[in-house]
Amino acid sequence: MAIAAAQGKLIAVIGDEDTCVGFLLGGIGEYNKKRDPNFLVVDKNTSVQEIEDTYKRFSKRDDIDIILINQNIAEQIRHIIDSDNDNPLPAVLEIPSKDHPYDPAKDSVLRRAKGLYSAEDMR
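The structure corresponding to this sequence follows.
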């Protein structure tokens, strides 16, 4: 247990080229022992199946605790993200991209958090 805590965990990114490059320049790019990266650059030629497979693979990896995904890409695999909320880790955070602004109404984490509290709890 202490060894796992000492190792640290990774952040994974599923995003457009600008998002991935920014995070990679920030130093989050890693390969595991199987030479699998912790990022996926999504472009117009990336299939929804490939995005789904990568998300599932990141979710199963024990060295990843946070998955950052562009919100417009998350919309393409919303059914998987919403059905995969049994475990708190990895945390899935939807982020805006350069071309698509953040829409809080589409964020599944924010929708679940709003369901936990009523308006009177915030007063």
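The longest helix spans residues 48-60.
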